[in-house]
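Dear Dr. H.,

I hope your travels went smoothly. While you were away I took the liberty of generating a structure for the chain from your last submission, since the lab meeting agenda had it listed for discussion. I wanted you to have the full record in hand beforehand rather than looking at slides cold. The sequence, exactly as received, is reproduced here:
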Amino acid sequence: MWNSFLPQESSGLQLQDVLHPDQSHLLERSFTVRFRCLLDNTSGFLVSFI
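The corresponding predicted structure, in token form, is as follows:
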């Protein structure tokens, strides 16, 4: 759910409330980057959380 990463005291807020400029401190960007590893026979993915 979109609000699962909010602090416990803010988890009841509606999305419209969180998008208000006064609540912008609650918004955080999270990216998952996957790099294809072709250096060995496994050809797996390396995951990096930024």
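Two observations you may find useful: Residues 15-18 form the longest helix (4 residues). The two ends are 20 Å apart (CA to CA).

With kind regards,
E. W.
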